Amino acid sequence: MSLAVDDNYTIHQSLYKAAVDLAEQRYPDGWAGAAALRTNSGNILTSIAPAIKQEGLGLCMEVGAICEAHKLNEEVTHSLCVSRSDNQTSFVILSPCGICQERLFHWGYDVQVAVTNAKNQLIFKPLKTLMPHHWYQAFE
Predict the structure, then answer these.
(1) Where is the CMP/dCMP-type deaminase domain (predicted)?
(2) 33 vs 117: CA distance, rounded Å
(3) Which of 18, 88, 110, 113 is the most exposed place for a label (fewest CB within 10 A)?
């Protein structure tokens, strides 16, 4: 999906809608979760965390979309993950875990990531605010 957007609010809302739509479609009952990433060309890439029998082999929700961005040779500019516990609860925004922060860092400190917050507002911050003492600074 490619969007012609130039407004951060529209980008954020589009990512949220893409993630929730995929989560609801893939997991109509019970737990649901999905990720949506935006690339520098305006593409929105979505993915899920596959339900597998061996939890130790599980992947984060962002991984499929991150791999797709690499395949397309596009830079990720924004990332968002959502999850709900069941059909009676609202989707909540999940900040990227430490491993996904490292995966997203491939595209630099300025990747905008949605962050968990008390009011579940759609707030994006540059990746560098989540990792202010990143090891890469030793090599800059």
Answers:
(1) 12-109
(2) 17
(3) 88
